[in-house]
């Protein structure tokens, strides 16, 4: 009897230990279910916060001029430049200019030793004077014989001899004059003058050096007219004509320069399959220097009074162009018809042909998955500045 009672007690204890984990699990599941229900109820009753935008996130549709731009790059060079070379052999006595100095047309740049050329010119001058003396004698003899022939005092043969001597004397004078002119030119070439006005960009000679004819001595550049050589794809060159306006930004200059297409190369570059275009830029103040790098914007087409929005504001969804407008504090998705793309003078822009009115407020860029009709709020300028400025520690 006692053994039977003890067995029953053990059986009940085992059952209690078996059911305890199950009860605890059921209680946990019930707690989680109740908590999720309360959270769902709270989420359905809590109002959705409005999307807050910075003023920089918003743009306006505006009327303006739109330009279709072809970007170009290239280095700048002077339109007028001259390489100064020695014209005669000789010793350099003086070099009167250095790199960076301004010179004017006709200014003396280099003087060479003239002793040898002085002697040659003097010798040629003496030969010319002797020939001229012989011509004077031959002229007098011819004139006398002509008078004697008319009186039949001499034969015709004697007069012809005098006439021949006269002709030979004239030829000798011409030859001597040519020799003298050559010697005089060589003497003049010992003084080297500037063929153009500009600045000395290169000097490769020093006083005392012996140079030969055609040796490179100096280089002059005229900075008043600059030119940029830029390659253009063959597909775009049909839209380019001489005289088209070009905006050129040069490294180091705060403002762009305005130039024009001066000429177009008639042949295609073999390696790049591009065509060289030459852009002329005025540079009266001389701020642009040789070799500076330029970035040009060539206007292929322009349209005035077009309705413009930033290009980043137009999105493509299902093959349609759309913008997100802000009307009465809500996001409104609008389908628009777009036209020409280009620049409005400040940024890349696109023409809106239909779907927007001037002054419409739109989102400048895609801010993610926006719901049509979502509420938005634009932060005040001061608040936006605080949001974009990190606090100092």
Describe the structure.
The protein is an alpha+beta fold and 393 residues long. It has three domains: 53-67 and 303-388, Beta Barrel (conserved putative lor/sdh protein from methanococcus maripaludis s2 fold), CATH 2.40.420.20; 70-78 and 223-302, Elongation Factor Tu (Ef-tu), domain 3 (Beta Barrel), CATH 2.40.30.170; 82-202, Helix Hairpins. Helix content is 31%, strand content 39%. Strand 17 and strand 18 (348-354) form a beta hairpin. Helix 2 (115-150) runs antiparallel to helix 3. The model is unreliable at 42-48 and 383-393 (pLDDT under 50).
Summarize this, please?
With about 400 residues, the protein is an alpha+beta fold. The chain has four helices and 20 strands.
